[in-house]
Amino acid sequence: MSRALKITVVLALLGGLALVGMTVMLMAMVVTGADTEASAGPSTSACSLEASGAQVEDLDEEQVENARTLIAVGKDTGIPPRGWTIAIAVALQESGMRNLDFGDRDSLGMMQQRPSSGWGTPDQVRDPAYAARAFYGGPGSPTKNPGLLSISGWEQMPLWEASQSVQRSAFPMAYAQHESLATSLVKKLSGETSGCAELARGPWQLPVQGTYRLTSTFGPRTSPTRGGADMHTGEDFAAPIGTVVLAVSSGRVSFTGVDGGYGNLVRVTHADGVESWYAHLSKIDVRAGDEVAAGTPIGAVGSTGNSTGPHLHLEIRIDSLPSPPLDWLRRKGLEP
After folding, report:
1. Which of 290, 98, 74, 289 is nearest to 194 (CA)?
2. What is the CATH code of the structural domain delimited by 213-331?
């Protein structure tokens, strides 16, 4: 298989079939927490999300040239390298970074912009430089549609969220899978990095202070809500509703919101590929992109999602794989 064909296949699978892939993943994952608690989106690391599996060397001349255009226009617009990375990831997801003359409804070009939605004429949106300027937006934008520069705080957003704020895709998380390749392209073609700061390393602490009971440990069990064999991928801290939930260490909030059986969920990404997940919350006090320290209040104990009573379901994930939380906390000198 040629490199050009390989990248096309990879992008098609990850783009057009993103929803199918996520569905299969959810079906295949073990149930966790209080019944069917499975991740609805890709996992995160310090600066990039799930990689597409494609490498810079897999791209052909057209794709590389379009990446150069996105970088050049970004420089001319005064956008930092993080913005170039976002634009390239969008182009990879929308078109495989090719200047297409077809798309969903009247979507056209590298960024799949729609003339009927005010992005420009068909000829304009098929011009890569025009499409790039329209995507970035700002004072020199050729369209009145909001571009990246119109999105308040885009620099601190996860890549998928910044991309979605401009593109309004039916599959917002799909942009995340191209961040690794986009970051590599920016580095190779411009010598610049995308500006992701290393996540801080720091002390660890317990997620709940005061009175609590450990009610369900990590490992196989009988599901409390539907019976039958179950794999519990976290540790449950039973406490009254409203008890403050604290970040266990410093990091960056990568997700907040409702996530299936988890109910109200917060995910925090720490250094070295470690994540902490906080489920069944009654309220959430942080948002995606926030930096937190050990002990930062992030929400409150609740019983949302698949839950039989008020508790915090804590997960520790290392390189996306669940790890026994108590073992991890004990290695940090803590005794729950």
Report:
1. 74
2. 2.70.70.10
